[in-house]
Design a protein that fits this description.
Shape: elongated
Largest sheet: 5 strands, antiparallel
Number of strands: 10
Mean pLDDT: 83
Strand order of the largest sheet: 5-4-3-7-6
Number of helices: 8
Low-confidence stretches: none
Number of domains: 2
Distance between the termini: 28 Å
Structural class: alpha+beta
Order of helices and strands: HHHHHHEEEEEHEEEEEH
Strand content: 15-25%
Length: 267
């Protein structure tokens, strides 16, 4: 798991989300009463404050539970922003379901459960999106600083997407190989000894100069490989040549005849 995933899915992130998300929502809803929330609860004054407090306690419990599950399952997640965003949305939806159940009971059946769910989900997403975004940006800032502090700057590989936006930073020693796939590049790397993958929207041509500086060599039209991770070069009876990696869980990397001698000389 890379630094960003460690921070996003780790214990500190779980605690921060469990406390800051409901706390922000509580203060925001009490002070500004957004999205006609008082109309949904059909209460004012002390009753409104009391019920908002109960609802935000429900949000706290729901987010804390979901973050605990995320922490326990953190090793099974891929490093994509879409997966993390979907999980965050799931947290809000779970909290909305429990909050809707309480609200339906509180209203004494004046509104149906599904009617209340429809009203609460959108409003809770509108309120909670702010702390989620703020925490995410803070985590990304700390992650980038931690990577830069821990690694030798000369060994850092910085991957930018087609819009010149920094997407991924890693030490060159951890990179196993790169694979081109249409408009994307798969970056296969080691994280605490386990192979991981990061998908970047870019081209091999845009990354070629950096690969050479950090010791990775082209072995195929669609591949760059780090010679340090090659276990052996294997040639089949059919004439097909491939590089067997030290990471046994990964498939051999094809080596074109054009690059065979260059790769062999580096071993």
């Amino acid at each position: 798991m890379n630094t960003k995933q460690n921070l996003l899915y780790g214990a500190s992130s779980a605690i921060a989300h469990s406390i800051l998300v409901p706390l922000f929502a509580f203060v925001f809803v009490i002070l500004y009463r957004p999205f006609s929330i008082p109309d949904i609860l059909q209460m004012e004054g002390a009753s409104y404050s009391f019920n908002i407090t109960i609802l935000l306690c429900i949000v706290f419990g729901s987010v804390a539970l979901m973050r605990l599950v995320l922490f326990l399952l953190r090793g099974r997640f891929t490093n994509t922003g879409l997966v993390y965003a979907a999980w965050c949305l799931g947290e809000v939806i779970v909290a909305s379901l429990f909050a809707s159940l309480y609200t339906t009971l509180m209203l004494g059946g004046q509104s149906g459960f599904f009617e209340v769910v429809g009203a609460i989900v959108g409003r809770l997403v509108g309120v909670c999106i702010y702390p989620y975004i703020i925490i995410y940006l803070i985590v990304m800032l700390f992650a980038e600083r931690e990577v830069e502090e821990q690694a030798d700057p000369a060994s850092l590989m910085k991957f930018y997407d087609e819009y010149k936006k920094l997407r991924f930073v890693i030490t060159s020693e951890a990179v196993i190989f790169l694979k081109s796939e249409e408009n994307y590049v798969q970056i296969h790397y080691l994280d605490h000894g386990k192979p991981k993958k990061f998908v970047l929207r870019s081209s091999m041509r845009a990354l070629e100069e950096q690969m050479g500086r950090h010791g990775l060599v082209r072995c195929h039209r669609s591949y760059f490989i780090n010679p340090e991770h090659i276990k052996m070069i294997r040639k089949e009876s059919s004439g097909v040549v491939s590089a067997e990696l030290k990471q046994e869980s990964l498939e051999p990397i094809p080596i074109s005849r054009k690059y065979q001698q260059e790769v062999t000389n580096l071993l």
